[in-house]
Amino acid sequence: MPSPAWTRKAGKNPKGGLNAKGRASYKAQTGGTLKAPVKSGDNPRRASFLARMGNMPGPERDSKGRPTRLLLSLRAWGASSKADARRKAKAMSIRLKNKKKKGK
Fold it and tell me: Are 8 and 58 within one domain?
């Protein structure tokens, strides 16, 4: 029996993150529901992801200069690097907090 699609190439999007098949196999194995990336706009889920992944250890490129899965995932969520992800997450969090204050 092969391993779940989310751990193999079949479940990974070549541009970063998981494809629909990968998200479905993850849900079948763990029960967790993963949503597709939010590529733009102010969204709390996007801000959280960018902040978390912007602080992940590891290189953005491998020894041959190819982007790692980390960098590909950041690009799928609209950031060009770990530093850009941290910058966008911080700015987005401030805007979301200000928007929440105005709504009250």
Answer: no
